[in-house]
Amino acid sequence: MPKVYIKTFGCQMNKHDSSVVLGLLFEAGYEETSDPKSADLILLNTCSVREHAENRAIARANNLIHLKHEKPDLLLGIIGCVAQSKGASILREAPGVDLVVGPDCYRDIPGLLEGLRRSGRSTVLNDIRASEMYGDLKPISMGVCAFLPIMRGCDNFCSYCVVPQTRGRERSRPAEEIVTEVGRLTECGTRDITLIGQNVNSYQDGETDFCGLLRRVDQVAGTTRIRFTTSHPRDFGEDLVATMQECESVCEHVHLPLQSGSSRILELMNRGYGFEDYLRKVEAARRGIEGVAFSTDLLVGFPGETEYDFLLTLSAVVKIGFDFAYMFAYSPRDGTRASTLEGEVPYEIRHERLKRLISTQNRITAEKNRSLVSTVTEVLVEGCSSRKPEEKVGRSRTNKSVVFRGDADPGDLVSVEIEELRGWTPYGRILENRGKGAADVGHL
User: What are phi and psi of 330, to 5 degrees?
Assistant: First the structure.
């Protein structure tokens, strides 16, 4: 039986897409391997949101090409967003790549592989297929936690972002299909389901909007936790706050990308809101949802960003007090409006600002987690710690990773007393294991 090794870069959507591709290949007679040296097929599922991620994927492909000298029949493919954005140019940047397939063309992979083995000619397929949702395909089970796409593509056209070009325009999956899949995952033992899309708030299937979808999902989820990402601040409103409060399965965590604390820069980014608008939404959510946690995305060094603009971002981070943030320095993406703007910020300044931002946010994250010491919270056990197998790792309802001692299996809900921080990670011990039932305790 031929073996496939797949390496995934980037977002939750890419992780889910990799499981879809694995499902297609399993049906075609492949089995998965974690060792690229033993593989007959290597696939790199790539991200092109930032230049660094794109370069990493191409570099990884070039690093793996030597395996073809040892195993002449080995096939090497690049799939995902870089395949969509770069197309045939990948074959020049990484000679030896056999297969380049964009996000809407995964169904074709088994047939393309058969053709490759007959012809030996490299193949590129990156059509945009607006009707492709993969809703009828069942991804490989992710175990305790799973990502469930509710939509694909994006209509926001933020000036720095290539997603509308790599994943096409926004389209939503049928609500009935999503509800059925939540039920199936729950029956199979999944305990934490994240509904994903580029902007879940704009989900629409007939008369069912995102709030309606959450209420329907909540009715079938039982004790399974429901999360969602990503929310666009422009579309995050009081109706969603009320729905989160109403639905017991929906966790008290919101990922709400701010990007910049400067309203001037936000306008250049074409984000559709100003900082004061964003702040009002956060404050409303904190009033409406007890203990809600906020994470965010932040982008520094955008064209035209002054030191004052950057200081506004630092001030915003301190004022809001995010529980966690993904932070990046701007990198130009071909085909985006931002790549044509004047006022490029020098590389050195971009990365110096990023270091200052990371230092500020890391201090806030540590302070927030330090306040959890001596509290008790409900944690869903995900598995063993990678550093110490005798310790377990899990996640709170507010999406905080917790390491703890005690007897528990993946999928159990446990009450954990937080005793200390290790770095900024809460560490503790199990007080009670409710197994697959709900733990009646507070949340981080």
Answer: -60, 135
